[in-house]
TrEMBL record:
SUPFAM superfamilies: NTF2-like, Probable bacterial effector-binding domain
Family (UniProt): Belongs to the HEBP family.
Name of the protein this chain belongs to: SOUL heme-binding family protein
Length: 380
């Protein structure tokens, strides 16, 4: 997206406690995720240069807690001008992700520089914790734009990194990445390559302000986002894919209000269904982030209301094409089924987000999203 804005909050979790955001719980892990994590850990141990069975006498100089704190401070600089501290890594450090491998600190830093120049990455660190005698695991989100393509597609990767510690030097000797969006995380993963290629497709997103959110996790079927609060002006609609009520809400921002104030247009236009049958629908336009309820003019029409959406955690399925009622309902059903299969708790109803003017945008590059709010979610 051209104007995606992400808020970064690096939290250091208390031992044996889960992270929380408002009323959302961060203490859940699905069975499938747990099985996949166990498989990934076995692979990480096979590749690691660190012998986890080294005598304890060799680890007396390794302060793992200090290394955890170090990563909290160092990793956010992965792609900025400061960069990471190379002195924390052995010269022979083993780096692996599903499509890349290096066996030296120079190769590791070259890979970081290449990503920085080609993709303008944004790196968001969620947590860091010790997961073995000589092992630390981090969880992260990386959002990138491929600058060589004219439409600058957005690529999103979320996952974990298992970092092995050399007990003789107290430095990192291996860094193994695992993506949430694929099953086969071994190098060289054809599934991983295809996952990258699929994200290069064209989506047209207007250069307008959007609600702020942070991508917490991207699976093969959906993204999980943490939305900040935002304000909408809304009116009753007829169906998810319909436009009934649209002229009323756009009239408000175009000056049909108590002070005749014109308010800048944003994106997307939401239609929200609040019932299981997706029949009770409202159409919404998001108001600019600098606005607050106390400063907004009153609507001229009784059919229009203004309210604050508190935000929260939402699962999102992005798709292109004309969002007909049948397609939207099908997408909602498939997304809800995936969430239940993964052990998540979707709330009733959904939202359709439409980012484009259907009269001015080719259908195959339209950007649409179906969103379902979640009761709770975990990054553990």
């Amino acid at each position: 997206m051209a104007t995606t804005q992400l808020s970064l909050q690096i939290l250091r979790p208390l031992p044996a406690a889960s992270q929380t955001c408002g009323r959302q719980s961060y203490g859940f892990q699905s069975r499938n995720s747990a099985i996949r994590t166990r498989k990934n850990l076995k692979w990480a141990l096979r590749l690691s240069l660190v012998d986890q069975n080294q005598p304890q006498s060799q680890s007396r100089g390794v302060d793992v807690k200090q290394l955890v704190d170090f990563l909290y401070d160092d990793l956010p600089h992965l792609f900025d001008d400061q960069g990471i501290d190379r002195t924390a890594y052995d010269e022979r450090v083993k780096f692996r992700d599903p499509i890349t491998k290096h066996d030296s600190i120079s190769g590791y830093l070259f890979n970081i520089a290449l990503l920085k120049n080609l993709f303008r990455p944004q790196f968001f660190l969620h947590w860091v914790k010790q997961t073995g005698t000589y092992e630390i695991t981090t969880r992260w989100t990386m959002v990138m734009k491929f600058m060589l393509l004219p439409w600058k597609p957005e690529l999103v990767f979320t996952g974990t990194s298992i970092m092995g510690i050399n007990p003789q030097t107290g430095k990192f000797s291996s860094h193994l990445d695992f993506w949430d969006s694929i099953e086969n995380n071994n190098y060289l993963s054809l599934e991983g390559l295809w996952n990258v290629v699929k994200q290069l497709r064209i989506y047209k997103t207007p250069d307008l302000e959007t609600p702020r959110y942070q991508i917490l996790k991207r699976t093969a079927n959906y993204e999980v986002r943490k939305y900040s609060p935002f304000i909408v002006v809304e009116a009753n609609g007829d169906k998810l894919s319909g436009s009934n009520g649209f002229n009323d809400v756009t009239g408000y921002i175009f000056g049909k209000n108590s002070t005749m104030e014109k308010i800048p247009m944003t994106t997307p236009v939401f239609t929200q269904a609040n019932d299981a049958g997706l029949s009770k629908v409202s159409i919404q336009i998001v108001l600019p982030l600098e606005k607050d309820l106390s400063s907004l003019p009153n609507p001229n029409q009784e059919t229009i209301s203004i309210r604050k959406v508190e935000g929260g955690i939402a699962a999102v399925d992005k798709f292109s094409g004309k969002p007909t009622e049948a397609i939207v309902c099908q997408k909602e059903k498939a997304l809800r089924s995936c969430l239940l299969k993964d052990g998540l708790k979707p709330k009733m109803g959904c939202l359709l987000a439409r980012y484009n003017d259907p009269g001015r945008t080719w259908e195959f590059i339209m950007r649409n999203e179906v969103l379902i709010w979640l009761e709770e979610f975990s990054l553990e």
